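Page 47, continued from p. 46.
Same chain as before, 343 aa.
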Amino acid sequence: MARELRECIEINGKLSFQDYMGTCLYHPTLGYYARPHATTVSKNGDFMTSVSVGPMFGKLLAGRIEKFWKANRAPDHLTIFEVGAHNGSLAKDIYSNLGEKIKKATHYCIIEPLAEQRAHLEKILPPPFSVLSEPPENAVALGVVVANEVFDALPVPLYLFSKGSWHEATVIWDKEFTWDTQPTRFTLPGEYPEGYVTEGNPDLEGFLEPLSKCLERGLMTFVDYGLDKASLYHPSRTAGTVRCYSKHSMKAHPLDSPGEQDITADVNFSAVEETAFQQGLQVAPVMSQSRFLTHCAKEWLTSTSPPDAAELRQFQTLIHPSQFGNRFYVLELLKGKVERAFP
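Result:
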């Protein structure tokens, strides 16, 4: 990966950080997410997600999807689209926890643009799962989009405030990968200290629009960590939120070990909401994962039979403020005339 990047810089000159991050994560064969057999998301990998806690996360999302389906007249055909499926664990957890009636109606479609990862998922996921390189052009009548920790992995530009003006961060090669800058039109209102670093938005329109177009009516559920615009761009947040993870340790420098560590940034939920609104989607209030999953778990928690002890431990981890509960947030978007059916 480092050799590929050096050659690219030698031919084309400096790389924007956004292009550097995109190459490191999504190079077709050498990118961090292009290695289907590498252990990245697990207790033994580089970082954990809610899926790593156990199947309870998928069970609760399955209940959420089923409630939405029933509230919208339980049609004979429902398509679930998952983006960022990794090793397929969440897909299997969601589908296995659907009721028998909705299972018969469901086609579970994973959208995976990376060819090697797509081929791997095709081998390990039998029907009713299918794997596509991009959202289909023909819209389904009723569908659900699920994306767990995807927005945070979209490549972002990086900006520096220095000597009274903004500059875009770039990457050059000088015996090692190092920083440079180039002019930018990016600006923020207010006063910022010398050396202030922050990130801009990824291509939110390019990400959301194809997903929206594949639904005539539907629900999109995004789970991620992030902030609103005011918090993200507060003058006291001088170093931004871009960071790297490797073997459960947070690494400070994104120019180290290209392609071998995760690079991520907090989601600007305000920007996602604005983009969704511009595309004609209905935007539900962002809420903490703790609150969202507690609503989803209401029937399970209040059922006459006591909850399974292992599932209860997983649930507690998913909603605990010091673990996943208050670090992650859920944003739901609606397309067309549908009942949200929440809580």
